Amino acid sequence: MDAKMRHEEARFDVELAPSKLPDRRRGGWVTFPFIAGNLLFMGIAMGGANANLIVYLIQKFGMESIDAAQVSNIVNGCVNLTPIAGAIIADSYFGCFSVVAVASFIAFLGMVLFTLTTSLPSLRPHQCSKAATTVSCSGGGPSTSQIAVLYSALALMVIGGGGSRFTNATLGADQFNTARDQDMFFNWYFVVFYVSSIIGSTVIVYIEDNVGWGLGLGICAAVNAAAVVVFLIGRRFYRVTEVTGSPFTGLARVVVASVVKWGVDEEGAEYYYSSKLDGQGTPSQSFRFFNRAAIQVKGDTNPDGTVAKPWRLATVEQVEDLKALIKIFPLWSSSPLLSITIGIQLSMTVLQALKMDRHIGGTFSIPPGSVSIGSLASVALTLPLLDRAVYPAFQRYMGRAPNPLQRIGAGHILNFIGMAGSALVERARLRSGPAHLTSVLWLLPPLVVTGVGEALHFPGQVGLYYQEFPEALRGTSTAMISLIVAIGFYMSTAVVGLVRRTTGWLPDNIDAGRVDKVYWMLAVVGMINFCYYVVCARLYKYQNKNKEEVGSEASDALST
């Protein structure tokens, strides 16, 4: 009987494959320098190119400021959408190592092509004003071929940079056997991620603005090449998990089998089909419609016990996996708005910086693309502070550490407070007028507040999804945050477009607009979204009972 069941599991390829015994000669912290090195160098390269993209499009391609901001939002959205595709491909077909290696090389090709757009005069419009915030290219706007080359470079960068980001994190977590080591890895992973973004947004952007775009982007390409080399050097140390099939196919089979067996009487079912070797499982009573997919009727299996009609029969485990995703969806749906506000704040901040006094000490000038350092630095500094001081203190006084739902809720609050702060700063800037430029440093406090909120809700969401997602989807769960960010950036583009069409708040010259009202709108919507999140959090019941040490009950998730 055991042999028969093992044969069934091999045939039923969408079930979670049993893990192989760890190879003691591979994995562990010896792999961290190579994985972190790839992340660090990729982050520097992508940060140096993306952080200054709005300025580059304005100065070198003569785009209007709002149009450049829209392109930047789309690029950022794609960078955060491709990790989902990378995770699916890695989990279903090629594995994490292959995806990270190929994606890093694709990003390198994009960086090289992007560098050529500034190094070769034929690939960009001629004589665009370096300090312009409006279109001022003597030869007119960019040609169709120039735009095609530009967008091709950006597409390669997006596919490569985004495709490797969270797949790299999954590969890193696979190197460890204990939850403690995995948690420690994720903490350092995020620190390296934000530090790399800071370096790219400051050092590289400064070189681009003060030395030359060719040198700055050339360094990005060289650093990207180093990311590929460092990652491949560590190949012999990595523990590589075997790919056994797509878990998403199993979820699709549950839906199809439930519809096909619409008329099957669940009450009269003799037993349910399960992958467990110790007996048949029983599905939960929530979303009972899907239980039909696991009811085994005549013709569903062959005489030897193997599955005869895979799209008519799913396992109880697959049914419960789908239910778990449905249950967590309301919580997930409250998260994209966080990314919408962050995306708009970051793009508007660059435009504000172009209109403000960026000098410090009379000689040094802060590049407008580096203003986002306030948000990145606050995240990088807050993460270890929370882990080493705040959370332990919370546990001493409250008897337990804050659970993911509480951390996400605190992030929501700081998010809309940051939007309100940006509104106040913009209002003060408009009142000062162009004759008395406001210091760009006033943009930092709201960015810091938003960054601290990100340090709370970003890891909180990763922890929640990793804890609550089905075990077969753990790899994809770590990339779900990127889907949230991607939706946020795409929606931020739509929101900005809607505001431009329906109000006069966002003209090309923001001095004649009301960006402060845009921020106030985001703050109000953020407060409403927080109320929705609180309702979802109080109604949510943890699925993985063995991990409720992070929070005893969902009903009191936000009580403190």
UniProtKB/TrEMBL annotation:
- SUPFAM superfamilies according to UniProt: MFS general substrate transporter
Q: Which GO terms describe its cellular component?
A: membrane
Record keywords: Membrane, Transmembrane, Transmembrane helix
Which compartments does it reside in?
Answer: Membrane
User: Does the keyword Transmembrane helix belong to this entry?
Assistant: yes
Which residue windows are transmembrane per the record?
A: 34-58, 93-116, 148-167, 188-207, 213-233, 337-354, 366-386, 479-499, 519-540
Signal peptide bounds: none
- Name the InterPro entries for this protein: MFS_trans_sf, POT_fam, PTR2_symporter_CS
Topology within the bilayer: Multi-pass membrane protein
Tell me the GO molecular function terms.
transmembrane transporter activity
Q: Which domain of life is it from?
A: Eukaryota
Assigned protein family: Belongs to the major facilitator superfamily. Proton-dependent oligopeptide transporter (POT/PTR) (TC 2.A.17) family.
Entry protein name: Nitrate excretion transporter 1
Species of origin: Acorus calamus
